[in-house]
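Closing statement on the NAP sub-project.
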Amino acid sequence: MTGTGKITVIGLGAMGAAIAGALLAKGFHVTVWNRTPEKAALLVQRGAVLASEPAAAIVASPVTIVCVSDYDTATKILDMTGVPATLKGRTLILLSAGTPNDARSLDAWVHAEEGHCLHGGIAAWPRQIGTAEAMITASGDKAVFDQQRSVLEALAGTVHFAGEGPGTAATLTTAAMAYLAGNWIGFCYGALICEKEGLKVDEFGQLMEGFTPMLAAEVRHMGEVIQHNRFSDPESTINTTGLDLRLLLQHTREAGLHTALPELAADIFNKAIAAGYGKEEHAAIIKILRKQDS
Ligand SMILES: NC(=O)c1ccc[n+]([C@@H]2O[C@H](COP(=O)([O-])OP(=O)(O)OC[C@H]3O[C@@H](n4cnc5c(N)ncnc54)[C@H](OP(=O)(O)O)[C@@H]3O)[C@@H](O)[C@H]2O)c1
């Protein structure tokens, strides 16, 4: 994808700098602004124009990507002197972390200033931006998404339109964070177990890489099972997985390791067994999690 348009990037941290760099590489005319202007030096050498303030940056292009720490930060920048008046008729693409409420609130504010707004979540590390490995999930006005699709496709090989709700992309990104939190913490528990037994953690990482096809199939399967309430045809039951998790808890106790995650996991599965779901698919633990006092 080669771009010929003008685009502004606000925020030049690890991700914002990667975004600006990918757009330059693909031929866009890029204007940048960052609170710490020194971070723009390499991009300026490559042809980016450094604006002195956010209002000047936004005026330079019809489209501005805002990639700062979070929506609170984005809101503070967009509320700086002179900025609201620049938004009329322009499009903002928010690629900053936030809750669904954050996205809905900023969206309403931008629309009140007669601007357009898209909200996106990035599933990629900065080094993957501009490659086929990156994915962006966006939501907001479909007509605006269609107009800006080429910009998003310059950044990510997979661009997914999640719907017109301004909070939808943030909802999916937040849901993904719940999944990732389990992965990150779970990996470190696995690393603790390996360390304690004198095994190498990098070899454990390679082993887990081999689980990738199984996990890819698993997430799709769990989504379908939960969406369609099909818990009664299991390949792996709550009884089976519950025993595995009790053994995990037993081992972490015997080894003198941190036990919070194994305790939580065993507790949820034990509750599911006590509630009569033992012979069901392990995704049926959602029936326990749906109860707020679970
Ligand atoms: N890095 C990743 O792997 C990754 C992956 C997916 C999504 N993301 C998302 O991308 C967004 C940016 O992440 P990042 O990795 O680029 O973070 P980062 O390296 O910490 O950069 C943060 C950016 O926010 C700016 N900022 C923070 N507080 C500010 C304030 N009060 N006023 C003005 N600017 C402020 C920083 O400006 P200064 O340079 O002046 O500090 C910098 O441009 C986040 O929402 C993150 O969730 C990141």
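The mean pLDDT is 96. With this model delivered, the sub-project is considered complete and its resources will be redirected to Aim 3.
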